[in-house]
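Below sits the subject:
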Amino acid sequence: SEEKNHISLGVAVEKTINMVRCRLLPEVIKALAENRSRQFPQNVFEIGYVVEPDKDADVKSRNVLKIALAHSHATATILDARQAVESLASQLGIPVVLKAHDHPSCIPGRCLSILADVKGRKKTIGFVGELSPEVITNWDLEQPTSVAEINLSEMCGL
């Protein structure tokens, strides 16, 4: 799988931390892994800031508000996460378009990019999909899982 650009820290007080997070989805999957002994279905959501590289910013990075979600149960499909994404977009009054997409964490053919009208042009603001069996095995998850991650800063023009 491809490595996404991230911000490395020079010298951190906590020696085990060497970079800031650029995605929320791994934290949501980690929550599922840590709670796999709990009752299913499990629905996990997180809204928070991540740091992304920005060569035009004075500090060469910017804070971005994102949301990530996961639905995990025996019959989880892309439809579970897709419905959550479409509901969020509807509640915010922001029309989105979903189109076929490949993501390294998802099953090929079971992933969609999320596009929204940002300042007059369609822009990819996230993705929705079903985690691949490899990811499910690597995280020792118990059930099929559908996921999504959305850049709320882009979606809402923040």
Summary: The chain has a mean pLDDT of 86.
